[in-house]
Write a structure and sequence with these properties.
Shape: globular
CATH topology of the largest domain: Rossmann fold
Number of strands: 15
Order of helices and strands: HEHHEEHHHEEHEEEEEEHEEEHE
Radius of gyration: 18 Å
Distance between the termini: 54 Å
Helix content: 25-40%
CATH class of the largest domain: Alpha Beta
Structural class: alpha/beta
Mean pLDDT: 84
CATH architecture of the largest domain: 3-Layer(aba) Sandwich
Number of domains: 2
Length: 261
């Protein structure tokens, strides 16, 4: 594949949701990582894209991120939706933690439900969620770390501008994250800026554990964070349909179903 053809394909992929990860580029382009980096540098020099941690985005997008809200359901509304299922999922996910280990918890109303079950474990937790940090602070044995960045009020999460490194030097055996939707395309979020932020977390984790209630399988649109192949464990409730369960298991993902009753 010639350079001009690779550039055309990169820009086409980028146009779908405004962000493309290195992993997705490697999957679509018949080129080495070094060649892809040179292609991105060349396109950035032409002003066609902006290189960020984990991939590339459309130019100028990061400049607007700190001045706008995030797409998707506000946290205050989402927290009340499917609450029994989310509580069951959070409890099952917390049971995957080992005493004394370091973990990362991405912001979300389902991941928040892990917090009541973490107090006895003496964990070190990196989170970008002020809701999660607030829930963990009363736990004397839990050490809480947060990144730097801008606070997005509707979701109450901290996100750094695109391309800016804001995470502490922190790597963890487990990342617990949520999603707006899950389908054959992979794990999806409602906003492109969340994709870049979650890619930063994924790159720092040995194991990715996805927490989603069963309603998320009925949704099929959003910006793709990662393919199902990058998820190690998926925790959901017993409302998951047979086709979705088969899709997850066929992708080689361990499926944990938490009874919501």
């Amino acid at each position: 594949m010639h350079a001009a053809e690779r550039e055309r394909l990169i820009l086409e992929l980028l146009s779908h949701n405004g962000f493309i990860s290195y992993r997705d580029l490697e999957a679509h382009l018949d080129a080495s990582p070094a060649t892809i980096r040179r292609d991105l540098s060349r396109l950035e020099g032409k002003g066609r894209l902006h290189r960020v941690h984990g991939g590339a985005e459309l130019p100028g997008k990061g400049e607007d991120d700190s001045r706008r809200g995030l797409s998707g359901t506000p946290f205050t509304k989402s927290i009340t939706q499917n609450l029994a299922a989310k509580r069951a999922i959070g409890k099952a996910a917390a049971a995957l933690c080992e005493p004394g280990e370091g973990i990362m918890i991405d912001g979300g109303t389902t991941t928040l439900q892990m917090c009541p079950h973490l107090a006895p474990l003496g964990l070190q937790v990196l989170t970008n969620s002020l809701h999660i940090a607030d829930a963990l602070l009363p736990q004397d044995n839990t050490r809480v770390l947060v990144p730097s960045g801008t606070i997005f009020r509707e979701q109450n999460i901290i996100l750094a501008p695109a391309g800016e490194e804001s995470m502490p030097r922190f790597y963890a055996p487990k990342l617990f994250m949520g999603a707006a939707a899950v389908g054959r395309q992979g794990v999806m979020q409602a906003d492109v800026i969340l994709v870049a932020a979650e890619r930063r977390l994924i790159d720092r984790a040995e194991k990715v554990i996805l927490l989603v209630d069963s309603s998320k399988f009925a949704m099929s649109s959003g910006a793709v964070v990662c393919g199902l192949g990058e998820v190690d464990i998926l925790v959901t409730d017993d409302g998951i349909d047979a086709a979705s369960a088969k899709m997850i298991e066929d992708a080689g993902v361990e499926l944990i179903i938490a009874p919501s009753a």
